[in-house]
Automatic annotation (TrEMBL):
Record keywords, A-Z: Coiled coil, Repeat, TPR repeat
Domain Cns1/TTC4 wheel: 279-339
GO cellular component, as recorded: cytosol; nucleus
Region (Disordered): 233-255
Name the record gives this protein: Tetratricopeptide repeat domain 4
Gene that this polypeptide is encoded by: TTC4
Amino acid sequence: IMSQAQGYDDDDAMDEFMDKFTKHKYKGAFDESNWEEEFEKVPMFMKTAPEEIDPEKHPELACLQSIIHDDERGPEEQAKALKDEGNEYFKEKNYKKAVVSYTEGLKKKCQDSDLRAILFTNRAAAHFHLGNMRSAFNDAVAAKKLKPDHLKALIRGAQCCLELRNFSEALQWCEEGFRLQPKDLKLQELRATADKLKRTAERDARKAKVKEKKQRAEMETLLKAIKERGIKLLKPEKPPKHSSDDEDEDGDTTRGMAALDLDGLSSQEATGFKVYLDDQGILHWPVLFLYPEHGQTDFISSFKESDRFIDHLAVMFGEELPPWDTDRKYHPQSLQVRFLRMNMSYCKSWILLFVTQVHVGFSFRCFVKEGTPSFTVLVKGSPFCMMFLSGKTVHQLK
């Protein structure tokens, strides 16, 4: 009787509940517009963890975090929990947070060497995806030291060596892995890649060495040709070294080589051209003409040492004069050519070689600066020319 009475009471309560359920809408229920947002608040269904965990907004996450970082638990348990936390961040591709979790796990100083090896290996993987190859490699080394037969650490170490272009070392890591798993496909792939890149790097190194040797020989030949012509080179931003004509030949060569190396590079960076010696043994110089009266310049990328000034002037000021010459006075026969650094005019029929050489018995010395002989061009006898030369001694050579 009591059982029947109790069942009756339960049925009445259920009927009352169902009657109330149909008449009153449940508060806080999910609907089509908010169910995804509400699911994101539940730790089990979260796709990504929030950057900052606010206990008021995320009480469940705060609770879980406090459990993970509970100092009352043993180091091994805490380290394992932090490893799991790092793995979740890793799955979300949040590698920075994964590194933090694995690092905190390692700080627990647990005595489980296998667990510590896994933490190092996992952190190496996170560093690898962040592009921190040296840190990833160091973690792989630490993991291998704790657990020499940890295949993942060996694979990660080989991958890091490849990225760091240490191909021989990458092959060594692969060989250690093959002693554990001779048929591992990932190791086979890494070894093949490392071997191919190693052979390519060695071939490129041989080519670079041959190229360097060839360039050095060409430079020595060029320097010898310049020295034989008596041409003096001037380093940028430094005054010329004045010395007697019988100065030590070796010392002069050393100075010339250093100056040419700097000057040639400087010229090439600025203009894209530098002095060179052709197959016929003729020097070609990049030459700059300056027209100070109009603030204009002309650049000749390959001025042969055997070329006459008048020949180039005839091309530049031939039938058609430049637009900036509004007075139409820049005719080849009326122009005066002067070396940029010297108070000296040159005969236009001279060749470049004669101008750049240092001649015994002459009272002037011409230095080529920054690998580019530069000349000032003026209209002979013009007011600007007289003003430009005012206060200087001009020697007209004929």
